[in-house]
Amino acid sequence: MLKYLAFVKTVEKGSFTLAAQELNYAQSSVSKMVADLEKEWGMTLLERSKSGVCLTSAGEQIMPFLRKVLNDYHEMEGQIYRMNGIECGVVRIGTFSSVAINWLPNILAKLQQDYPGIEYEMLLGDYEEVEQWIDKGRVDCGFLRLPTLPKFDTILLKQDEYKVVLPEGHSLAEKETIAIEDLNELPFLLLERGGKTEVSDLLERYHVQPDIRFTTWEDFAIMAMVEKGMGVSILPDMILQRIPYEIEIRSLQKPYYRQIGLVIKNQRHTTPAVQKFVDYLSFRTEAE
Asked: What per-residue string of b and e applies to 119-134 under the rule 16 or more CB within 10 Å gives b?
């Protein structure tokens, strides 16, 4: 199992050195464990170079099986802990920035008080990346906008309102709420990476065509540029809490929301630690 873990961590981190730091092993030990696997199986799993490592075609084919073995092992370990009344384990979470910054810290702080034996690993990405991590078993669960893939188990947690952000002194800031049509032809900073997001869908729905000057998935970069007067934007309310930027925030006349949910590949196969995390989130949502 240690060899499997060493191999998977090396692939995830892109180097033997970073994998060794993560596992608290010597770099030579991690390298030897991977080499032992290659010798045992009679194939090259990794391409080595000065810049790091990457999977060979053989490694690509083996990787899903190793992830499944490790996931099954974690489930078995969790069941043993549960049978012995021990609250511990690891929860691997995929998420996007607004949840990671403004929601998860409070949740994890409370969970650490109640279950100090449970550890957490958080990966930050966009919707598509988190969806892939869940599907491939890289994370146990993830926060996504809903709906997502129908094969996943989902729990609706929050309706997050999208709001217009403006430079201070902008003419639209005189209004209490803003019609989406008011953004036509205005310099616009688009929150998007890869596939279309809710903002693009909203603009298309109302046939609004702002002058898109910049596109990024980084919320704070957009707020900084809005503050400098480079354009206006539409951002989710969750990321607009406790911000350091001097900008104006207004609701749309016809409010627009994204549904945020916790997504699990198969809730019946979660470890006890992951189930504690799920139960806490479900309880918190009901309480709100």
From this structure: eeeebebbbebbbebb
Would the CA dihedral through 185, 187, 193, 199 be positive or negative?
A: negative
Q: What is the DSSP string of 166-210?
A: EETT-GGGGSSEE-GGGGTTSEEEEE--SS--HHHHHHHHTT---
- pTM of the complete model: 0.68
Burial of 199 (0-12, 13-18, 19+ CB in 10 A): buried
Residue 134 DSSP one-character state: H
Counting runs of H as helices and runs of E as strands, what totals does the chain give? 10, 11
Distances (CA, A) of 160 to 56, 103, 198, 236, 240: 42, 12, 11, 6, 11
H helices of 14-158, in order, are 16-23, 27-41, 57-83, 97-102, 104-114, 127-136
Inter-residue contact 252 to 179 (CB < 8 Å): yes
In whole angstroms, give the CA distance from residue 268 to residue 83.
17
What is the residue-level pLDDT of the chain in tens, covering all 288 positions?
Answer: 889 999 999 998 899 999 988 888 888 889 999 999 999 999 999 999 888 899 999 999 999 999 889 888 877 877 776 666 556 778 999 998 888 888 888 888 888 887 788 889 999 988 889 999 999 889 999 999 999 999 999 999 989 999 999 999 999 999 999 999 999 999 999 988 765 678 998 999 999 999 999 988 888 999 999 999 999 999 999 999 888 999 999 999 999 999 999 999 988 888 888 888 888 787 655 444
Neighbouring residues of 115: CB distance < 8 A, sequence distance ≥ 6: 87, 88, 273, 276
Closest CA to 156 of 270, 263, 277, 269: 263
91 phi, psi to nearest 5 deg: -115, 120
